[in-house]
UniProtKB/TrEMBL annotation:
CDD domains: USP-like. InterPro entries: Rossmann-like_a/b/a_fold, Universal_stress_UspA, UspA. Belongs to the universal stress protein A family. It comes from Pandoraea anapnoica. Residues 1-148 form the UspA domain. This is Stress response protein NhaX.
Protein backbone atom coordinates (compact mmCIF):
# COMPACT_ATOMS: atom_id res chain seq x y z
CA UNK A 1 0.00 0.00 0.00
CA UNK A 2 1.40 3.38 -0.97
CA UNK A 3 1.46 6.38 1.32
CA UNK A 4 1.35 10.08 0.65
CA UNK A 5 4.16 11.88 2.43
CA UNK A 6 4.17 15.66 2.60
CA UNK A 7 7.68 17.01 3.12
CA UNK A 8 7.82 20.70 4.03
CA UNK A 9 11.20 22.30 3.36
CA UNK A 10 12.58 25.80 3.68
CA UNK A 11 16.15 25.34 2.45
CA UNK A 12 17.62 25.15 5.96
CA UNK A 13 19.90 22.36 7.10
CA UNK A 14 17.09 20.94 9.21
CA UNK A 15 14.82 20.68 6.19
CA UNK A 16 17.58 18.88 4.24
CA UNK A 17 17.90 16.52 7.21
CA UNK A 18 14.13 15.90 6.96
CA UNK A 19 14.59 15.12 3.26
CA UNK A 20 17.36 12.63 4.09
CA UNK A 21 15.10 10.94 6.65
CA UNK A 22 12.28 10.79 4.11
CA UNK A 23 14.62 9.07 1.64
CA UNK A 24 15.64 6.63 4.37
CA UNK A 25 12.14 5.39 5.19
CA UNK A 26 10.07 5.99 2.02
CA UNK A 27 8.85 2.78 0.41
CA UNK A 28 8.97 2.22 -3.38
CA UNK A 29 5.24 2.87 -3.86
CA UNK A 30 5.09 5.97 -1.66
CA UNK A 31 4.60 9.41 -3.19
CA UNK A 32 6.37 12.41 -1.68
CA UNK A 33 5.03 15.91 -2.21
CA UNK A 34 7.64 18.52 -1.37
CA UNK A 35 6.24 21.90 -0.40
CA UNK A 36 7.90 25.22 0.24
CA UNK A 37 5.91 28.11 1.64
CA UNK A 38 6.75 31.58 0.37
CA UNK A 39 6.24 33.95 3.25
CA UNK A 40 5.39 37.59 2.66
CA UNK A 41 7.32 39.07 5.61
CA UNK A 42 6.63 42.68 4.66
CA UNK A 43 2.88 42.29 4.11
CA UNK A 44 1.99 44.17 7.29
CA UNK A 45 4.73 46.77 7.02
CA UNK A 46 4.75 47.75 3.34
CA UNK A 47 4.26 51.46 3.93
CA UNK A 48 7.06 51.53 6.53
CA UNK A 49 9.62 49.76 4.32
CA UNK A 50 8.58 50.68 0.78
CA UNK A 51 10.69 53.83 0.59
CA UNK A 52 13.83 51.92 1.72
CA UNK A 53 13.46 48.47 0.16
CA UNK A 54 12.20 47.30 -3.22
CA UNK A 55 9.66 44.89 -1.76
CA UNK A 56 8.82 43.36 -5.14
CA UNK A 57 12.51 42.56 -5.70
CA UNK A 58 12.59 40.86 -2.28
CA UNK A 59 9.47 38.91 -3.19
CA UNK A 60 10.94 37.86 -6.55
CA UNK A 61 14.08 36.65 -4.75
CA UNK A 62 11.95 34.62 -2.31
CA UNK A 63 10.09 33.02 -5.22
CA UNK A 64 13.35 32.21 -7.05
CA UNK A 65 14.82 30.72 -3.86
CA UNK A 66 11.68 28.62 -3.37
CA UNK A 67 11.88 27.25 -6.91
CA UNK A 68 15.58 26.40 -6.54
CA UNK A 69 14.95 24.66 -3.21
CA UNK A 70 12.09 22.62 -4.66
CA UNK A 71 14.15 21.76 -7.73
CA UNK A 72 17.05 20.48 -5.60
CA UNK A 73 14.71 18.39 -3.46
CA UNK A 74 12.90 16.95 -6.50
CA UNK A 75 16.20 16.02 -8.12
CA UNK A 76 17.48 14.28 -4.98
CA UNK A 77 14.28 12.30 -4.40
CA UNK A 78 14.00 11.40 -8.09
CA UNK A 79 17.61 10.12 -8.05
CA UNK A 80 16.58 7.77 -5.23
CA UNK A 81 13.67 6.45 -7.33
CA UNK A 82 11.00 8.06 -5.15
CA UNK A 83 7.83 9.30 -6.83
CA UNK A 84 7.88 13.03 -6.23
CA UNK A 85 6.07 16.21 -7.02
CA UNK A 86 6.60 19.71 -5.73
CA UNK A 87 4.42 22.63 -4.82
CA UNK A 88 5.22 26.20 -3.96
CA UNK A 89 2.66 27.79 -1.65
CA UNK A 90 2.50 31.58 -1.74
CA UNK A 91 1.08 33.13 1.42
CA UNK A 92 0.21 36.27 -0.54
CA UNK A 93 -2.35 34.12 -2.37
CA UNK A 94 -3.21 31.59 0.37
CA UNK A 95 -3.12 33.94 3.34
CA UNK A 96 -2.54 32.77 6.90
CA UNK A 97 0.65 31.43 8.39
CA UNK A 98 3.35 29.05 7.19
CA UNK A 99 2.14 26.33 9.56
CA UNK A 100 -1.47 26.90 8.50
CA UNK A 101 -0.54 26.59 4.82
CA UNK A 102 1.31 23.31 5.46
CA UNK A 103 -1.66 21.90 7.37
CA UNK A 104 -4.14 22.99 4.67
CA UNK A 105 -2.04 21.40 1.94
CA UNK A 106 -1.76 18.19 3.98
CA UNK A 107 -5.53 18.07 4.33
CA UNK A 108 -6.15 19.02 0.68
CA UNK A 109 -3.72 16.39 -0.63
CA UNK A 110 -4.94 13.78 1.90
CA UNK A 111 -1.48 13.28 3.33
CA UNK A 112 -0.74 10.17 5.37
CA UNK A 113 2.34 11.70 7.03
CA UNK A 114 3.86 15.18 7.32
CA UNK A 115 7.63 15.45 7.63
CA UNK A 116 9.46 18.63 8.55
CA UNK A 117 12.63 19.72 10.24
CA UNK A 118 12.74 21.48 13.56
CA UNK A 119 15.45 23.83 14.72
CA UNK A 120 14.91 22.91 18.36
CA UNK A 121 15.00 26.47 19.65
CA UNK A 122 14.52 26.95 23.37
CA UNK A 123 13.87 29.74 25.78
CA UNK A 124 13.66 33.32 24.57
CA UNK A 125 14.61 32.46 20.97
CA UNK A 126 11.66 30.04 20.76
CA UNK A 127 9.33 32.55 22.35
CA UNK A 128 10.38 35.35 19.99
CA UNK A 129 10.77 33.36 16.77
CA UNK A 130 8.06 30.77 17.33
CA UNK A 131 8.15 27.34 15.81
CA UNK A 132 6.42 26.37 12.59
CA UNK A 133 7.11 22.72 13.42
CA UNK A 134 5.46 23.06 16.83
CA UNK A 135 2.40 24.77 15.33
CA UNK A 136 2.05 22.02 12.71
CA UNK A 137 2.42 19.35 15.39
CA UNK A 138 -0.20 20.96 17.64
CA UNK A 139 -2.80 21.69 14.96
CA UNK A 140 -2.47 18.89 12.40
CA UNK A 141 -4.95 16.04 12.42
CA UNK A 142 -2.48 13.88 10.54
CA UNK A 143 0.67 12.14 11.79
CA UNK A 144 3.70 14.43 11.94
CA UNK A 145 7.35 13.43 11.99
CA UNK A 146 9.71 16.14 13.24
CA UNK A 147 13.35 15.78 12.30
CA UNK A 148 15.96 17.54 14.38
CA UNK A 149 19.15 18.76 12.76
CA UNK A 150 21.97 16.30 13.20
CA UNK A 151 25.66 17.13 13.17
CA UNK A 152 26.52 13.58 12.11
CA UNK A 153 24.68 11.27 9.78
CA UNK A 154 24.04 7.66 10.75
CA UNK A 155 25.97 5.06 8.80
CA UNK A 156 24.40 4.54 5.39
CA UNK A 157 22.28 7.70 5.54
CA UNK A 158 21.66 9.52 2.30
CA UNK A 159 23.01 12.99 1.77
CA UNK A 160 21.59 16.01 0.04
CA UNK A 161 23.68 18.17 -2.25
CA UNK A 162 25.39 20.83 -0.20
CA UNK A 163 25.23 23.32 -3.04
CA UNK A 164 22.03 25.04 -2.04
CA UNK A 165 21.42 28.15 -4.15
CA UNK A 166 22.31 31.40 -2.44
CA UNK A 167 20.85 34.78 -3.25
Amino acid sequence: MSHRILLAIDGSETSWQALRETIRFAMPDDVVRVVNVIDDPFAHYQSAFSSYIDLEAVREALIAESQATLSNAYKRLHEEGIQTDTRSIDLRTWGGTIAGAIIREARRWQTDLLVLGTHGRKGVRRMLLGSVAEQVLRHSHRPVMLVKESTTLPTGAASVPTAVPEN
